[in-house]
Amino acid sequence: MADSLDTHQAQGSARPADDPEQAPDFSGWTCPAPLRDNQRVVMGHGGGGVLSAELVEHLFAPAFGSEVLAELGDSATVTLGGARLAFSTDSFVVRPLFFPGGSIGDLAVNGTVNDLAMVGARPAYLSCGFILEEGVELSVVGRVAEALGAAAKEAGVTVATGDTKVVDAGHGDGIFINTAGIGLIPEGVDIRPQRAAPGDVVIASGAIGVHGVAIMSVREGLEFGVEIESDTAALSGLVESMLGATRDLHVLRDPTRGGVATTLNEIASASGVGIRVNERNLPVPDAVANACAFLGLDPLYVANEGKLIAFVPPEHADAVLAAMRAHPHGKEAVAIGTCTTEHPGMVVADTGLGGSRVVDVPLGEQLPRIC
């Protein structure tokens, strides 16, 4: 989340900020101190957690005033000429530009393709905007562009239009990329966070926390005994396989910024159900678990770029799991929890010690600049 602004339901109002007397009224905000006491952007605003949600709910969404925007899913669903289309946009500012398993070019394609797939759409076309910093080597730009083109071909989408801008040296970080995408939603598919229902089985498509740890390892020069590669991948093919098992998928989300924990909380909030996960079932690789223990991180909050979370009616769960495990991007799929009428709007984890804990939304992001 994103991502069609990629957070929670919007409420409140905002006014233009260029006139001090007409600036947004922050007094009713329920966010923590960094927003109330310091009316400037902080890194946490881009982390996909509470600060991001508050920024969208109380500033951007009221200013834009769009009914289409109000659902705030990974993609907007629009109708044009009788066709149901998914429409999404995302910006990529990852540092470093290249990392084990991928690059900013791969992410720019896969991130937007996955946002479209999370509403069941078949991704078709992308736009691509490059923001280049003065002084960046053209060979680096070329490597990123080639990676982006290769990822688009692998995902089966066409880069149909684009734009390039250059900013002064010191006013960027080499390369930033924005991509937007459109795709066609098949008849009979209705996938959105509000459809999560008591009894739904919560499924993870594979190992979690891999991308965030891969980024941190190269950014900070850390070694964990084994190289951890990003899981960046386009998931549209996996979603098609799942839809082949049943069109009645309730929710799909790719747990990017804020990780699995933030994704589950957003779905619980949107649908009003409670979610209970079993920590013993969480697919956390040993290398990720060890790295997180060393860094003091919780894998549930670490970003992923090639995984999805699915909410499936119990009568279809076995068929969907089988379809996922037959696909290369879902071969490690596992049920991690269920939806319940208890503790509505909250996520609770059963621990390996026999207790339970509330899994809350993070304030910002444990690992900034990961996508």
UniProtKB/TrEMBL annotation:
Domain of life: Bacteria
Annotated ranges, domain PurM-like N-terminal: 74-185
SUPFAM superfamilies according to UniProt: PurM C-terminal domain-like, PurM N-terminal domain-like
GO BP annotation list: protein maturation
InterPro entries: HypE (IPR011854), PurM-like_C_dom (IPR010918), PurM-like_C_sf (IPR036676), PurM-like_N (IPR016188), PurM-like_N_sf (IPR036921)
Residues covered by region (Disordered): 1-30
PurM-like C-terminal domain span: 198-342
CDD domains assigned: HypE
Entries under Pfam families matching the protein: AIRS (PF00586), AIRS_C (PF02769)
Gene3D superfamilies with a match to the protein in the record: PurM-like C-terminal domain, PurM-like, N-terminal domain
Family statement: Belongs to the HypE family.
NCBIfam families: hypE (TIGR02124)
Protein name: Hydrogenase expression/formation protein HypE
Source organism: Wenjunlia tyrosinilytica
